[in-house]
Specification:
- By secondary structure, the protein is α/β, with parallel strands linked by helices.
- The protein has four domains: about 130 residues, Rossmann fold, CATH 3.40.50.2300; about 160 residues, P-loop containing nucleotide triphosphate hydrolases (Rossmann fold); about 80 residues, Helicase, Ruva Protein, domain 3 (Orthogonal Bundle), CATH 1.10.8.60; about 55 residues.
- About 50% of the residues lie in helices and about 10% in strands.
- Strands 2-1-3-4-5 form a five-stranded parallel β-sheet, with helices on both faces. It has a five-stranded parallel β-sheet with strand order 7-8-11-6-12.
- Helix 3 links the parallel strand 3 and strand 4.
- This is Sigma-54-dependent Fis family transcriptional regulator.
């Protein structure tokens, strides 16, 4: 644990330091000012605070306890005093202390506090995490099951990196379950007190991103009426999940690189770095390699963030899981006796799901609410698909291969498929106007679309 001893008597500080053995890391302060300076520079897990830090009767230590409880709520505070006064004990507890030591105390007493402190620290961390998640769905431990060999390989990789503190990059198409995978990685650590702080980078403006991620000091800018911790400090001891990583501007990327390299955050308005210890899990559906070539993403950050890389397969490559997922969405939605007809199940299996799991969930939920009968039919589902009914209802019709012109097909399978791919791409480009938008519309990575356009370019000639 990271321990801070605050006492104006040198002998007390040095004696306590000598009695606290490795792996605990001890910092010393002889005043409230020095203590707050240390707290600004690093996250402290346990603080011993003497109530009488000077010769006055103001009990400066009590003020320090109140400040720690307000600005560093996950720090366990133990008060120390040479006066055995009942009302003073109650005052300390109300100020934010969790324990009270009467000086002089022996090594055994100190050791007992050190043994209890990690449990108390986890409780304070958990409490703070719940406050951060107030108003949103609480993070729960999850377990993932699959019949898909492709996704089983992903889960096996996730289990192998359990316990590692290096950063993790989750890649995959939109809607493929990147945040669920981040929560699964957190769940594998099997520690409910471990913070999980999720940040949607695409939802915060460039001007606010620095303060949101790294915090700010009081008076750092107009409206900064009090010191505030950022997401990285809130994630200390746990995981921070940065969704839509590629949307961060280049200035923030530089600051993020510094955090990943040294563990130091620099709150806005503070010149001295502050140590934090959290694992960074980032996610993107963008082609970072292409963005690096376009000077829109830093190459050094890319290599720093992808110590471990987990690539999620799209749902169309997890067909073994489609029906299980669909039935699970039905069950969780409490839609009574609603169930899929065999034709509806055939549609679910034949559709390519460009929006992946998110699209499947939405289609099942909307169809279940709007369908008149209990048995869901293809017609109940197709209106709610990204690639809507006309295309897929035709695909489901039982056309015989003999209806195709045999001479037109003979020896030209690859060419005909390429022609159809080209028509799809041209249609998407005309409809959406750019490669990125067209790729999202078709449900394929942008790099794949670019490769297809180059490969098929000769067909037009």
């Amino acid at each position: 644990m990271r321990v801070l001893i605050v006492d104006d008597e040198t002998l007390v500080r040095k004696t306590m330091q000598s009695q606290i053995e490795s792996p605990h890391v001890v910092s010393l302060a002889d005043s409230m000012e020095e203590a707050l300076d240390i707290l600004d520079k690093q996250v402290i897990d346990l603080a011993f605070v003497d109530l009488s830090l000077d010769d006055s009767t103001d009990r400066i230590g009590l003020q320090l306890i109140q400040e720690i409880a307000k600005s560093h709520p996950t720090t366990v505070v133990v008060a120390m005093t040479g006066h055995d006064e009942g009302p003073l004990v109650e005052t300390c507890m109300k100020a934010g202390a969790v324990d009270y030591l009467l000086k002089p105390f022996d090594r055994t007493t100190l050791t007992q506090v050190l043994r209890k402190a990690p449990v108390l620290h986890r409780l304070l961390r958990r409490n703070q995490t719940l406050k951060h998640q107030a108003g949103s769905k609480l993070v729960q431990h999850i377990n993932l099951y699959t019949k898909s060999p492709a996704f089983k390989a992903v889960l096996d990789t996730a289990k192998k990196i359990r316990g590692a503190n290096q950063s993790i990059l989750i890649r995959g198409e939109s809607g493929s379950g990147k945040e669920i995978m981040a929560q699964y990685l957190w769940s594998l650590e099997n520690d409910s007190s471990r913070p999980f702080i999720a940040v949607n980078c695409g939802a915060i403006s460039g001007q606010l991103a620095e303060s949101e991620l790294f915090g700010h000091k009081k008076g750092a800018f107009t409206g900064a009426t009090e010191t505030r911790s950022g997401k990285f400090e809130s994630a200390d001891g746990g995981d921070i999940f940065l969704d839509e990583l590629a949307t961060l501007n280049m200035d923030i990327q530089v600051k993020l690189l510094r955090v990943l390299s040294s563990g130091d955050i620099y709150p806005v308005g503070q010149d001295v770095g502050k140590k934090v210890n959290c694992r960074t899990i980032a996610a993107t559906n963008e082609n970072l390699e292409e963005l690096i070539k376009e000077k829109k993403f830093r190459e050094d950050l890319f290599f720093r963030i992808k110590n471990f890389t987990i690539t999620l397969p799209p749902l169309r490559e997890r067909k073994e899981d489609i029906l299980d997922l669909a039935h699970e969405f039905l069950r969780k939605g409490n839609y009574g006796d609603k169930h899929f007809s065999s034709q509806a199940e055939a549609l679910l299996l034949s559709y390519s799901w460009p929006g992946n799991i998110r699209e499947l969930k939405s289609a099942v939920e909307v169809a279940s609410v709007l369908a008149d009968g209990n048995e869901l039919q293809p017609g109940d589902i197709t209106p709610h698909l990204v690639q809507s009914a006309p295309v897929y209802e035709e695909v489901l019709k039982n056309h015989s291969i003999t209806e195709i012109d045999e001479k037109a097909l003979e020896g030209r399978f690859s060419h005909l498929v390429s022609e159809f791919e080209l028509k799809l791409i041209d249609f998407a480009m005309q409809k959406k106007g750019s490669e990125s938008a067209a790729a999202r519309y078709l449900g394929i990575p942008r790099s794949t679309l670019g490769d297809l356009r180059r490969r098929l370019a000769g067909i037009k000639k």
